[in-house]
């Protein structure tokens, strides 16, 4: 088995239609793929219908707040029809739209020649989000969008958003019959890393695993995360975090072992 537990489609901020992902996964040699779009299950039906050669794990990547930082939580094996989780995701998505609209306004006030229409065209029907605003900025030559000058957290054009506390997101994932895995906890592209103490608190709250092998985490970080996971009784997963053409990452670039995958499946609520 070759297993990738983190991938995105055009249902959020990826560039690959969900119906095309299973075929691409099979061509990449994968046998299992999790579709984990940001705060939505919108792509699952199309991806499931097309998944004839790979096992598709229903998932979602939830935007959360951990102390003063934003983190992302993967909910795997979740029931997309579980109303409390679906309702919370809808609230996050509608707030994301409000946030993106206001970010465009702030960017324009700061002199960036972008428009809301341009951002909507880039999103191509997906819920608007910060990556779409960043793509619009890049299209007019502003390639440092995720900095304090523009739309990084706390940046001049940033707008606060509604987010769940991570422990509440873990509880929702478990109530929806799934398992919770903390995504890229020490990515080199994020301003703050999740500490060992924070991981211990999340483990006590029901976290099942942490994404150790990830393209944005160097080998020494991956090794340390696997050590912490073992100490806390957590599972260390591996995933590509595939976004299509939006990131220079291929499906299956990092993978989860069959043993860890089986253990994750066994931990479903």
TrEMBL record:
<protein>
    <submittedName>
        <fullName>PHP domain-containing protein</fullName>
    </submittedName>
</protein>
<dbReference type="InterPro" id="IPR003141">
    <property type="entry name" value="Pol/His_phosphatase_N"/>
</dbReference>
<dbReference type="InterPro" id="IPR052018">
    <property type="entry name" value="PHP_domain"/>
</dbReference>
<dbReference type="InterPro" id="IPR016195">
    <property type="entry name" value="Pol/histidinol_Pase-like"/>
</dbReference>
<dbReference type="InterPro" id="IPR004013">
    <property type="entry name" value="PHP_dom"/>
</dbReference>
<feature type="region of interest" description="Disordered">
    <location>
        <begin position="1"/>
        <end position="20"/>
    </location>
</feature>
<feature type="domain" description="Polymerase/histidinol phosphatase N-terminal">
    <location>
        <begin position="3"/>
        <end position="66"/>
    </location>
</feature>
<dbReference type="Pfam" id="PF02811">
    <property type="entry name" value="PHP"/>
</dbReference>
């Amino acid at each position: 088995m070759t297993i990738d537990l983190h991938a995105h489609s055009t249902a959020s901020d990826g560039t690959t239609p969900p119906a095309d992902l299973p075929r691409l996964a099979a061509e990449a040699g994968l046998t299992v793929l999790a579709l984990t779009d940001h705060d939505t299950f919108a792509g699952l039906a199309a991806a499931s219908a097309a998944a004839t050669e790979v096992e598709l794990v229903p998932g979602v990547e939830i935007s959360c707040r951990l102390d003063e930082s934003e983190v992302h939580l993967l909910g795997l094996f979740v029931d997309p029809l579980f109303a409390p989780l679906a309702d919370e995701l809808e609230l996050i998505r509608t707030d994301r739209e409000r946030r993106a609209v206001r970010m465009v306004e702030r960017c324009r006030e700061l002199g960036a020649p972008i428009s809301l229409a341009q951002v909507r065209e880039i999103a191509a029907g997906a819920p608007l989000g910060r990556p779409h605003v960043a793509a619009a900025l890049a299209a007019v030559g502003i390639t440092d969008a995720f900095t304090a000058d523009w739309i990084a957290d706390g940046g001049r054009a940033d707008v606060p958003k509604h987010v769940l506390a991570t422990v509440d997101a873990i509880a929702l994932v478990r109530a929806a019959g799934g398992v919770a895995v903390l995504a890229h906890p020490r990515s080199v592209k994020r301003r703050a890393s999740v500490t060992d103490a924070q991981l211990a608190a999340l483990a006590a709250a029901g976290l099942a695993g942490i994404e150790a092998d990830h393209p944005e985490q160097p080998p020494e970080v991956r090794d340390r995360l696997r050590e912490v996971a073992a100490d806390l009784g957590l599972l260390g997963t591996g995933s590509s975090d595939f976004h299509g053409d939006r990131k220079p990452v291929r499906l299956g670039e990092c993978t989860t072992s069959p043993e860890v995958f089986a253990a994750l499946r066994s931990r479903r609520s």
